[in-house]
Amino acid sequence: FDGNELRVWKYRCLLPVKREPVSLKEGGTPLYHATKLAEELGCKVYVKHEGANPSGSFKDRGMTVGVTKAIELGRNAVACASTGNTSASMAMYAAKAGLKAYVLLPAGKVALGKVAQALMHGAKVIGIRGNFDEALALVRKISEEEGFYLLNSVNPFRLEGQKTIAYEIVDEIGTPDRVVLPVGNAGNISAIYKGFKELKELGLIDSIPKMSGVQAEGANPIYKAVMECREDIDPVLKPETVATAIRIGQPVNAKKALRAIYESNGTAVQVSDEEIIRAQKDLAAKEGIGVEPASAASVAGLRKLVAEGVVERDETVVCITTGHLLKDPEAVIRACGQPIEVDASLEAIRAVL
Ligand code: F0G
């Protein structure tokens, strides 16, 4: 395997699989210095754009490891519940590996681009009349019954792949003071923390960044637990947010995520749908970084942490933008409106310039 590329499998010696990876060249995503945001916020802001992965989200890092593990274990079918991105990524890697793929989605609540990916890559896609938390409970049961290899973030190999986000950040800029990211099922914050922790245990870094999780106001169980200094969550029974990727009320990795936040002296913050859309527009129009709403929550959260005085002025902060703008075109049209339509004449065009 090409070990010289700055991608997930560069860190193969720290990944628990033996066979040749099922890879679509995931990872090695760009880390942008967000100069305009830095100017606004008074700290050094980087954006790690996970939307640049092959399926357009960070899930590919987990899936390359998870699907490789499925093959290593001799399994022939994989399954997941998803708010969209996990299913798109799983379907893609299952296609590459020649595995059957089964997906449960909350019907009508998944962004169009993600459903399109899962369908085109050949997964069996089933919409349930219920939310993500219900879909996850169901897919866990069905997978056990049918012998499907479950690829939600309850699968530890998924998190092993996703921890490489931490390795790449350190490889490129050393240890930042803080990492800010959206939290849904709470796997990614746990995975990235694990990555930093391992680097510290190996003596490669001296400190661990403050892990700071951002949730939408309508889907905020981790935020509430942190505000009350609790080790576990109270589920949100009817989660709702424009950021459908993180429309989750009962995150399965809640305990791990809370540990990551407490042990790293991090925090959690909640943001409104309006703040999320404003951050999405600013990232796109001021920094040239196109992300889906859930990803923009990281920047909306950072803004809030700066306003609350939690982030200090000279901090180096990395915001993780987890998914690509094109994942959710309908949210974009709702935020920006339709393009202007005019007659096919120069006068008509000049009139609207
Ligand atoms: N951002 C995006 C774009 C996501 O798709 C997700 C999770 C998250 C953030 C939150 O990550 O769950 O590890 O805390 N999406 C899952 C899915 C739930 O099914 O695609 P997390």
From TrEMBL:
Cofactor(s), by name: pyridoxal 5'-phosphate
Transmembrane stretches, start-end: none
Its EC number(s): 4.2.3.1
Any one GO molecular-function label of the UniProt entry: L-serine ammonia-lyase activity
Residues modified to N6-(pyridoxal phosphate)lysine: 59
Keywords tagged on the record: Amino-acid biosynthesis, Lyase, Pyridoxal phosphate, Threonine biosynthesis
Isoglutamyl lysine isopeptide (Lys-Gln) (interchain with Q-Cter in protein Pup) crosslink, residue number(s): 141
Domain of life: Archaea
Sequence ranges assigned to domain Tryptophan synthase beta chain-like PALP in this UniProt record: 22-323
Residues reported in the UniProt entry to bind pyridoxal 5'-phosphate: 85, 184-188, 322
UniProt record, GO biological process: isoleucine biosynthetic process; L-serine catabolic process; L-threonine catabolic process; threonine biosynthetic process
Catalytic activity: O-phospho-L-homoserine + H2O = L-threonine + phosphate
CDD domains recorded: Thr-synth_1 (cd01563)
Stored Gene3D superfamilies: 3.40.50.1100
Pathway assignment: Amino-acid biosynthesis; L-threonine biosynthesis; L-threonine from L-aspartate: step 5/5
Known role: Catalyzes the gamma-elimination of phosphate from L-phosphohomoserine and the beta-addition of water to produce L-threonine.
Assigned protein family: Belongs to the threonine synthase family.
Protein name, as recorded: Threonine synthase
